[in-house]
Amino acid sequence: MKYDNQYYLIVENTCSGAFMLGESQKSDKDLRLLAERSIKRYVKGRGHVHLTMGDESQFSPCDYHWVIPAGVVSYRFKEVLEKFDLQGVDFYETDIENNGRVWSDHYLVHIWHNYRVIHQGRSKIKGSYIDNDFVLEKLITG
């Protein structure tokens, strides 16, 4: 497997948001919605990301691209991950575009269950939504 190690950057396609996700009035601009539960019922269709930077003439999709929120993976890597029966991880069909070429065998990874592994009483999280800055100072799983 190969991965890009932050070599490429995701650029939002202005049309993709409307087709891929719905909106929730209570979602705190989707921050809480994305963090706390699955968004499957809000997904309206196939996603589309444009990966740029680097030498675009040499671009070829990797098995893993590190992009927000958790990455874009190839179908092959998705099959490997699914064998682990990951709870709180969803995959959404996504096209990758670069320099006029489109690859359709990729998936956006959404990890939404990760906050539940942190023991809320004994772990120490410092930060706020206002500063958009969270630091996990002490991690205890439970």
Descriptive account of the structure:
- The strands form 2 sheets. The protein has a 6-stranded mixed sheet. It has a two-stranded antiparallel sheet with strand order 7-8.
- The protein is of the alpha+beta class and 142 residues long.
- The protein folds into 2 domains: 9-111, no CATH class; 116-142, no CATH class.
- Strand 3 and strand 4 (72-74) form a beta hairpin.
- It has 3 helices and 8 strands; from the N terminus they run βααβββαββββ.
- Mean pLDDT is 65; it is low at 1-34.
Strand order, largest beta sheet: 1-2-5-6-4-3
- Helix fraction? 10-25%
Strand content: 25-35%
Please tell me the overall pLDDT.
65
Give start-end ranges of low-pLDDT stretches: 1-34
Kindly name the structural category.
alpha+beta
Spell the H/E element sequence.
EHHEEEHEEEE
- Number of DSSP strands? 8
Work out the count of structural domains.
2
Radius of gyration: 17 Å
Sheet with most strands: 6 strands, mixed
The termini sit apart by 32 Å
Q: Helical stretch count? A: 3
Shape: globular
